[in-house]
Amino acid sequence: MADVLVIGAGLAGSLVALELAQRGAEVELLDPGQGDAATALSYGGVPWWAGASGPMNELMASAPAAWRQLEQRHGPLGWSPCSLRLHWSDADAEPAAETDRAAGGTSVLEQTLAGVEALARRHLRADQVERLAPSPALGSRRMLRLEYGRVDSRRLALALPLALEGAGVRRRRGRCGPLQAGALPAQQVVLAAGAGCRALWPALPDRLRVSWAGVLALEAGPLCSQWLGGSALVEPNDILMPLLAQRQALEQRADQLQRPEWIVDAGLAPWGEGLLLGQSSLIRPGSSCGCPPEALPLELELRQALGRIDPRLGQLDASFVQLPVSFCSSGPPLVGPVAGEPGLWLFAGLSAPFALAPALAVLLAEAISGERRALERLPGASTQPSSGWG
Ligand SMILES: Cc1cc2nc3c(=O)[nH]c(=O)nc-3n(C[C@H](O)[C@H](O)[C@H](O)COP(=O)(O)OP(=O)(O)OC[C@H]3O[C@@H](n4cnc5c(N)ncnc54)[C@H](O)[C@@H]3O)c2cc1C
């Protein structure tokens, strides 16, 4: 029997498995391998400068160094510095309410723009935060360019199996059934199954929720190179996002939802030699994962939103794919021991996981191996001591 069984081989499970193996644990990583990991269709954006203060944000700021270190150890994983381009048009600006305007009030758009610039400038040099000059190529779009980082999710998905094998992690194909209290299948078990965690252990905090994400995946080919070659919206390695992205706000009001709600955000990110386009997010009331929502209305609205930034984008021959993604509707991510079940750990519900997972995987591996100080630094930790895998 392995010292540690990690359930789920997405970003969270793979990174913690690598860290545990690095510390000398015998690790088994269980995953059905059916391509339903959110990790494989992610923009992989690393907003390392986006935290304000506090321990989680220090971890976030360490993300570029953490990815470089992972690559030194395991070979290329798809990390690269890049630019984030935030786009908007004047039509997005809701005029400030009369009373606000009388008091010199600003629109949501102006407030957001000022907030993002101020946040970025805490870490970035002046020349790394740039409002692009209006140009005929951008039409009515405006653009803010910021230094950023990304992990190419397609390259990561190809590289991880080799990295895990090289580190001595034993990979097993299969879907784990619900776990039984007092009868864990290994001395230490890490739930890193993303949206599948609750099916394995129903008594997880209510704030661990699931959103259904939809994205258009465009494979490499002439269509993709033609669009990239002729576009003034992005440079080839950049991520494009709406300044007024709506996903985060929807996640924050998840606990108040009375019926399913969805939004679309028009952006794009490189994906190997192909492209990922847009993101729809649908959240239902309650905490269960449920089945994928009806695709057609989401795809149509996503294509319309993309068409507003470039008419050719909405018409590209890309496949609409939906995946469940775990998130926390409030509070910090759930990374730490599961209360009441010694030996059971949870690694789920991260916002900005591509920035936070590398550092949290190190802390979690240390805590699982019995390091008390690491346990105390975990955001979702109770004071329950770990018995360690050794
Ligand atoms: C379009 C899109 C864009 C995104 N953009 C960003 C971004 O720019 N930056 C960022 O940080 N994040 C982004 N995200 C979010 C991020 O990709 C995910 O939150 C993250 O990849 C989740 O990783 P995970 O390992 O927790 O879960 P997953 O990647 O979903 O992996 C979970 C794995 O567990 C397996 N599993 C489930 N149930 C079981 C079971 N019973 N037994 C065994 N295995 C099981 C699944 O098959 C899956 O392989 C984006 C997501 C999407 C969809």
Keywords for this entry:
390 residues, disordered C terminus, 3 domains, single chain, FAD/NAD(P)-binding domain, four-stranded mixed β-sheet, six-stranded mixed β-sheet, binds flavin-adenine dinucleotide, 13 helices, 32% helix, alpha/beta
Question: How would you describe this structure to a colleague?
Answer:
There is one protein chain. The protein is of the alpha/beta class and 390 residues long. The protein folds into three domains: 4-77 and 152-206 and 331-377, FAD/NAD(P)-binding domain (3-Layer(bba) Sandwich); 81-149, no CATH class; 208-328, no CATH class. 32% of the residues lie in helices and 25% in strands. The chain contains 13 helices and 14 strands. A hairpin with a 2-residue loop joins strand 10 and strand 11 (274-283). Mean pLDDT is 92; it is low at 383-390. The structure holds flavin-adenine dinucleotide. Flavin-adenine dinucleotide binds at residues 7-13, 30-32, 36-39, 41-45, 175-176, 192-194, 196, 200, 213, 215, 276, 279, 323, 325-326, 348, 352-355.
